[in-house]
Amino acid sequence: MKKVALTGIKPTGILHIGNYCGAIKPALELTKEYDARYFIADYHALNSIKDPKKLAANIREVAAGWLAAGLNPDAVIFYRQSSIPETFELTTMLMAFTSKGLMNRAHAYKAAVQDNTAQGDDPDAGVNMGLFTYPVLMAADIILFDSDVVPVGRDQVQHVEMAQDIAQAVNFNYKQDVLKVPQAVVQDTVAVVPGLDGRKMSKSYGNTIPLFTPEKQLRKLILRIVTNSQVVEEPKDPETSQIFLLYKLFASVEEQGALAHRYREGGMGWGEAKEELFRVVNRELTPLRNRFEAIMADPAKLDAILAQGAERARPIAAATVARFRKAAGID
Ligand code: TRP
């Protein structure tokens, strides 16, 4: 039997090239080797997005984005967290095995408390219970599907470790392997994707290139990437160039070699390097953009895909909850 890879995608904003290279592509790569279960973590997004129109739009766009990027919903169980009521049953059960101190140490909560304290506010100002108990819901997402590996960015590793702790506490208490203990697989070592200003591409830095931006806008953004002030004639170092780092993510090995050569011999300005970068990025993203538009134009089909995913997911979830209830004596 194949091992299970599971990950949650929080629908908090539009997808950008950093998400695509750093998370989506590596997660799709894993689907070849694992039984993959990927879901839209809409209840996690509810903690921060209270505008119903915005949340609904984000859910659709992010789901369509993953499908457009190549997620095959026949091979991967692809669903919305909110379609799996067992998630919430398991969350409640896991709460009984989660110490409050563990939640106090979760980094998102700790950061909120630190910010509040620094500003002289009440330590818990603006903190809802959804944020405070975030790692328990996430542990339920993971444990529910007997996950072996959880591909996540570095910032989520602590949460997966908490899921491990909680699963182990349950197994220890009942002296049997009731729940599968998951492992994190860190994805962002695959590629640090530089943003427009040279820092890591991230929504919070406002330096992103949206994945499905129209061709014209894509070119404009790429032409805006910051460079140093080296003139055309000067030989340039590809390895320290943000443009080249991005180029490597989209170009063939031969193309990379050819552009590196152009950098080193001099006579190529940044404008020209950017045009070449635009060419390869646009080449890869054009079919994705077209698929994305087609999926967004057919909401009934998108709903059907997600419903089909939920239907396949629920029996697995129900089996885990049943196992736990039996072990716990609430059969
Ligand atoms: N917390 C994750 C994030 O912000 C999203 C997420 C929710 C998740 N549930 C999960 C990731 C379960 C992996 C497994 O990116």
Helical proportion, percent range = 55-70%
Q: How widely separated are the two ends?
A: 29 Å
Average pLDDT over all residues: 96
Helix and strand composition category: mainly alpha
What is the total tally of β strands? 5
Weakly predicted, low-confidence segments: none
Q: In percent, how much strand structure appears in the residues?
A: 5-15%
Number of helices: 14
Major β-sheet annotation: 3 strands, parallel
Bound molecules: tryptophan
Would you list the SSEs in sequence order as H and E? EHEHHEHHHHHEHEHHHHH
**Strand neighbour order, sheet with most strands:** 1-2-3
Q: What's the alpha carbon Rg, rounded to whole Å?
A: 22 Å
Estimate the global geometry from the Cα principal axes: globular
Itemize the secondary structure elements and their pairings.
Elements: E1 4-9, H1 17-30, E2 35-40, H2 42-46, H3 52-68, E3 77-80, H4 86-95, H5 100-104, H6 107-118, H7 129-132, H8 134-144, E4 149-152, H9 157-174, E5 183-186, H10 215-223, H11 242-250, H12 253-265, H13 270-296, H14 299-328
Parallel strand pairs: 1-2, 2-3, 4-5
The chain binds tryptophan.
